[in-house]
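Input record (one chain):
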Amino acid sequence: MSAPEPLSGRAADNLRYIRQAMERSATFTSIPGWGGVVMGAIALIAATVAAGQPTEELWLATWLMAAALAAIVGLVSMIRKARGAGAPLTGANARRFAMGMAAPFIAGAAITYELWTVRSFAAMAPAWLLLYGAGVLTGGIVSVPVVRAIGVCFMTLGIAAIASPSEWGNAWLAVGFGGLHVGFGIYIARNYGG
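The corresponding structure, as predicted from the sequence alone:
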């Protein structure tokens, strides 16, 4: 006869299983509401500044600087929100969220570079809106439903930007990266804890 398995070993296995099941079923809720509002404000300022630039290169530089600043704001606010809620940003759903967003964002950077090399600045606004929306929608699979709605709205604006005159690109960017971030940021802050 074999010796019975110690109770502590089974309890540890059960706790590990429960923890993994909870982690798989939990949603990623560290999407920053107020951080999104600030990101939107950055985009609205960028749209105003970019509209007055004398060259397409300076228009692009304005938007790229705004994107870098907004990315920093978004990351810092996400970290602060996660810490405040006691939720780690290293869990499975946080990794899934990041991976879902990474591929479209990397594609967006590569496409932006190619559009810049062929001097096709008019295609940038629709591409950015579509790829950002795809990233948010894909990452949002492990988050609350409003995040997926944000992704769908960005993609819809990207399609609208394709269907409208290319001169409207900067305005579509203001509506998307500015308006959607501000509006949904306020909604997230009020309904999902800041």
